[in-house]
Amino acid sequence: MINPLLDVAGIAVSPDHFIDGRRAASAQSFELRSPIDERVLGRIGEARADEVDAAIVAAQRAFPAWAALTARERRPLLDRFADEIGRRADAFCVLEANDAGVLLSRMRHGVVPRAMQNIRWFAEHALTLQDRAIDTEQAHHLVRHDPAGVVAIITPWNAPLMLATWKLGPALAAGNTVVLKPPEWAPLTSSLLADCAAAAGLPAGVFNVVQGSGAATGATLVADPRLARISFTGSVPTAKSIAQAAGANLVACSLELGGKSPFIVLDDADLANAAATAALMYRNAGQVCLAGTRLLVHASVADRFIDLLRGHVERLVVGDPRDEATEVGPIIHPRQVERVNGFVQRALAAGATLVWGGAPHRYGAQYYQPTLLANVAQDSEIVQSEVFGPVLTLQTFDGDDEAVTLANGTDYGLGGVCYGATEHATDVAQRVCSGFVWVNSFGIRDLAAPFGGIKRSGIGREGGDWSFDFFCDVKDVIVPKRPFRASFSQR
Fold first, then answer.
1. pLDDT band at 37 (very low <50, low <70, confident <90, very high)
2. Which candidate in 197, 383, 408, 453 could, as Cys together with 414 as Cys, close a disulfide (CB 3.0–4.6 Å)?
């Protein structure tokens, strides 16, 4: 028995799980509301132990045949998977705008093309990993990347489609089978991904989707000893719970977590470009882990920089993400709005200066004003904790050493931005403790490059060979160059 399809702004999508190539209904369900206007989009199945078990069993059953294929044999199926995403591009845009509040324009021009690329690129790159040779004086080494087994993928609500495909691409290309647990607050594009997989002809059980909360579905999934890998993007507290559960079974984890990244503006920066880039930190309502939310500006240029940034912020269009003109959409959920506002109000009570914003936006209950807080102490909550909303802080510095000290003075280390004369900015960027730093730019990504954080921002790297090193069992087959004679040596 399966449930009728939901109608979300004219797009039909299943509210049920996808297990072993078929839709599977649950006895339990939860209500899904749109962050745009809090309207009910439908009820979504919530997987409990039986459904999670069925998904893992299906993935186990499918694994031997899928793993036995060569990367070249898997590639046409994965290319068709990407094609199916492209054929449903409009549907993906509409669904994610409605259930996650992501800008429709960003979905159309950035996210959906990137989702297709995530599948295609890793399918192609897998071809380069077959039987790499290392020749030494003593032996020929044949290094293999063998599929690990059943992989659990858990994705966050701020970028459901992009992050699902970012992990699915290498996991499937490597020959693993997957159980995907999408975010409770934004599960619809993951459901549509299952339709794409079926239409592309991926064998039953290779890709499964179980929906539900982290506390119920997610906790059951990550505690299962049959998993070979767990790949998670989300919050630090959830990551700790996952790591604890995985540790009990010695299951390897890749954890891409929060950020509190610095945005450094040096005294020789192009202030106009730096200010224009800083305004981008408000996009997706600030719900971007890699955003440079801590503005660290040289004291000699701070006033001019803030004036330039103010001009951009005053022109930002806050509103319905389905409108092409909108630049800042809603926050995902009422609880998250309350959380963001709590950070701001506590900072103000502690003595921070409100430069602009600082309250919910008049457009709607789940919209928040782009906000900037100054006169914040380095050890204050607003500087040290991830807000995950359209809230930036401003601190000034007098020299490079002070800038680096401020930049590195949190428990996070995901990313960073540094604006200044190229050589100067590059020197400072290399001293920032983080997984990556953009110099005079923001958001440049390449699938061949490593992505991930240090400290509380995560464990492991994704992208290029790094993804396959995680999703595979790396094996060395050693063939001696001359006859080997076993013997015991005695001293």
1. very high
2. 453
Starting at the edge strand that comes first in sequence, how are the strands of the sheet with 371-374 ordered?
A: 353-356, 371-374, 391-397, 294-298, 262-265, 417-419, 438-439
- Distance, CA of 389 to CA of 369 (rounded, Å): 10
Out of 46, 84, 184, 256, pick the active-site residue: 256
Structure tokens, 258: 């929060």
Q: Which residue would you say has higher pLDDT here, 132 or 467?
A: 467
Residue 31 neighbours by CB under 8 Å, 6+ apart? 40, 42, 43, 44
pTM of the model as a whole: 0.96
The mean pLDDT of 433-452, rounded to a whole number, is 96
Q: Which H, E and C letters describe the chain, residue by residue?
A: CCCCCEEECCEEECCCEEECCEEECCCCEEEEECCCCCCEEEEEECCCHHHHHHHHHHHHHHHHHHHHCCHHHHHHHHHHHHHHHHHCHHHHHHHHHHHHCCCHHHHHHHHHHHHHHHHHHHHHHHHHHCCEEEECCCEEEEEEEEECCEEEEECCCCCHHHHHHHHHHHHHHCCCEEEEECCCCCCHHHHHHHHHHHHHCCCCCCEEECCCCHHHHHHHHHCCCCCCEEEEECCHHHHHHHHHHHHHHCCEEEEECCCCCEEEECCCCCHHHHHHHHHHHHHHHHCCCCCCCEEEEECCCHHHHHHHHHHHHHHCCECCCCCCCCCECCCCCHHHHHHHHHHHHHHHHCCCEEEECCCECCCCCCCECCEEEECCCCCCHHHHCCCCCCEEEEEEECCHHHHHHHHCCCCEECCCEEECCHHHHHHHHCCCCCCCCEECCCCCCCCCCCECCEECCEECCECHHHHHHHHEEEEEEEEECCCCCCCCCCC
Q: Is 256 a catalytic residue?
A: yes
Q: Of 196, 289, 418, 472, which residue is the catalytic one?
A: 289
Q: Which pair of structure tokens corresponds to residue 1?
A: 């028995």
CA distance 390 to 243: 29
Ordered domains of the chain (ranges, CATH): 6-257+457-477 (3.40.605.10), 262-439 (3.40.309.10)
Tokens at residue 34, please?
């749109």
pLDDT band (50, 70, 90) for residue 490: very low
